[in-house]
Amino acid sequence: MCGIVAYTGPRDAVPILTEGLARLEYRGYDSAGIAVIGRSGDLRVRKAEGRVAEMAAGLPARFKGGAGVGHTRWATHGEPSDANAHPHVAGTVAVVHNGIIENADELRAKLVADGIELTSETDSEVLPHLIARSGATELEDAVREALSQIVGTYGIAVVDTRHPGVLVVARNGSPVVLGIGEKEMFAASDVAALVRYTRQVVHLDDGELATLRPDGFRTSTLDARATSKEPSVIETEEAAYDAEGYTHFMRKEIHEQPAAVERALRGRLDARFHTAHLGGLDLDPREARAIRRVKILGCGSAYYAGQMGAQLIEELARIPADAEPASEFRYRNPVVEADTLYVAVSQSGETYDTLAAVQELRRKGGRVLGVVNAVGSAIARECDGGVYLHAGPEIAVASTKAYTSTAVVFALLALHLGRIHDLSPADGRRIAEGLRALPAQIEEILRQEDRIASLAGDLAKYRSMLFVGRVRGWPVAREGAQKLKEVSYVHAEAYPASELKHGPLALVSPELPTVAIVPDDELVDKNRSTLGEIRARQGRVVTIGHRATDEDAVVVPKNEPELDPILLTIPLQLLAYHAAVALGHDVDKPRNLAKSVTVD
Ligand code: G6P
User: Fold this and answer.
1) Which of 301, 482, 569 to mutate to test the pocket of ligand 1 (most atoms within 8 A of CB)?
2) Cα separation, 288 vs 17, whole angstroms
3) Among 24-28, 42-46, 178-182, which stretch is predicted with the lowest mean pLDDT?
4) Ligand 1 in contact with 597 (CB < 6 A)?
5) Do 229 and 200 touch, CB atoms closer than 8 A?
6) Rounded mean pLDDT of 186-205?
7) Which are the catalytic amino acids?
8) What is the SS3 assignment for 212?
9) Lowest mean pLDDT among 47-56, 293-302, 579-588
10) Tens digit of each residue's pLDDT (9 = 90 or more) over 490-524
11) Which of 2, 365, 392, 565 might form a disulfide with 98, Cβ 3.0–4.6 angstroms?
């Protein structure tokens, strides 16, 4: 959500902080700021509402420093404004904070009663004050003392002019990763900010704190017990974090899907038994047989991909499966059953609602599997076992390649469970062959981009759209509507095609076009008759399917019926992307949204 970055070393911290923030901006982008300790030991702070580039453009040439912290924000407490932007400062101390301090009101009231003047509406502002008031000689101890008074989640980075060259960072629920350089140290909420400077990183655990100096770092728990950490190497290429000549990350990521699907499949298909192997599943065949139900949890696109996954598991493994928004599940005191396999889906592995659902499940003794993209993320670590997507970094706020890779991983899971249950070897082979065909078929769809773009330009003129699909087409329709809403701000509503006549048909008119998902499966005639009902009411219909019926048809290559929904989603991503471009929107950073929502 918000992004933090910090540096200590011989170089000027300012360009390192601003460049790092620009790379984290996809996480949150309503305000930005930096604080550095100047060469003369003074604290220099700049923060402003708006984008990182605007904040950086206003920096005077003499604004330099050897150690510093930076932040890009997505407002939770208090509207976006200069005052609410981070870093927050108290005397010699500057702090950047991700997360939520739940007892902030109480702490603010105490500080005000002690005569302290607070200048923002944020929960975070209490932190520098608590640190500045500590009598501890070491900054690390002062931070520890302050954190002991906090209830909530945080990833923080702190500098104090009384300790030039020292950075203190801490983590509880919001990621913090250290970057080890040559006589310099970095910290950030996401490796994206570090890849340009170092490949050696250390992931902090919840409840851990680190003190960084240019020549190294030490880590400890909040109660001051030293911990020992082995650095790991970032494997992802730096270029993966760049737009690489594409105008937008969203378009780049749509085009990366054939390669991402290859990676999701690599080494996982077994040609001998026509099944799939998923290394991190940690489920022996006897345990897999004992599963009576599968419950999939996620938010946003992760939830819709989970709905597609539930259908695949029911169809191929004949195990009852359904998906539910993690955000709903965690609040409704769910019944947790020993013979249910729970699956948490998250691209970032950080979404707080999903993490909280996993924690609630684990507390009640539920077995949870993670389907996650970000390696080593909070959700991945919290689960009993898991399958990584290996989709590479996804930077655009609207999920595309992670969505597709999630669906592919569910197909592998369904194949694995199916072959343990009643899926025949012949059907296993059929699905495995279908999966292997996906990358080339996605390429084929991407070659139709120009045509889909012109259709999108045309559809972008409407104020509202219906997306309909039946059974396998239903999660496709939901994800299509979600994508369009997210990036083009055109109102879109997804409906099961079968439900149309029970309500929304009343809306159909020449002003409301319908995007219909029409796979060539056993329900194709039913779908065609629904489209007839729409056309009879002068509604324009665009079909995404396997037959070219009229000029408003997008035809995708045919795969196995169970896997067709994966392909049918791709034109809808292009449709949303090009509608947003036609309308002149900031595609990668849509208004009011953030890439991963790490707060309640
Ligand atoms: C946010 C984003 C969505 C995303 C959802 C889940 O709401 O705006 O695009 O689908 O989070 O994110 P996750 O990282 O858990 O998949």
Assistant:
1) 301
2) 48
3) 24-28
4) yes
5) no
6) 93
7) 2, 595
8) strand
9) 47-56
10) 999 999 998 988 988 889 899 999 999 999 999 99
11) 2
Q: Is 519 helix (H, G, I), strand (E, B) or coil?
A: coil
Cross-strand bridge partners of residue 170: 156, 209
Q: What is the pLDDT of residue 1?
A: 64
What is the residue with the minimal CA distance to atom 11 of ligand 1? 596
Q: Pull the structure tokens for residue 520.
A: 């060539």
d(CA 389, CA 381): 15
* Phi, psi for 19 (deg, rounded to 5): -65, -45
Global pTM exceeds 0.90: no
Q: How far is the CA of 255 from the centre of ligand 1 (A)?
A: 20
Mean pLDDT of 286-312: 97
Residue 373: CB within 6 Å of ligand 1? Answer: no
43 lines ligand 1 (CB under 6 A): no
Q: How many residues does the chain have?
A: 600
What is the pLDDT confidence band of residue 349, given thresholds at 50, 70 and 90?
A: very high
Q: Residue 276: left if φ>0, alpha if ψ -120 to 50, beta else—which one?
A: beta
Q: For 574-591, give one letter per residue: b (16+ CB within 10 A) or e.
A: bbbbbbbbbbebebbbbe
Average pLDDT of the segment spanning 181-209: 94
Beta bridge partners, 34, equal 46, 70
pLDDT in tens, 406-455: 999 999 999 999 999 999 999 999 999 999 999 999 999 999 999 999 99
Q: How far is the CA of 328 from the centre of ligand 1 (A)?
A: 15
Ligand 1 pocket: which of 327, 596, 599 to mutate (most atoms within 8 A of CB): 596
* Closest C-alpha residue for ligand 1 atom 3: 300
Sign of CA dihedral 88, 89, 94, 99: negative
58/536 Cα distance (integer angstroms) = 59
CA distance 530 to 534: 7
Q: Does the CB atom of residue 446 touch ligand 1 within 6 A? A: no
346 lines ligand 1 (CB under 6 A): yes
Confidence of residue 405 (pLDDT cuts 50, 70, 90): very high
- Evaluate: CB of 398 within 6 angstroms of ligand 1: yes
Quick one: pLDDT at residue 29?
78
- The terminus-to-terminus CA distance of the chain in angstroms comes to 12
Residue 434 is given by DSSP the state: H
What is the whole-number distance in angstroms between the Cα of residue 350 and the centre of ligand 1?
9
- Spatial contact of 47 and 82, defined as CB atoms under 8 Å apart: yes
CA dist list (Å): 194 to 174, 348, 535: 17, 17, 54
Say whether the peptide bond before residue 334 is cis (omega within 30 degrees of 0).
no
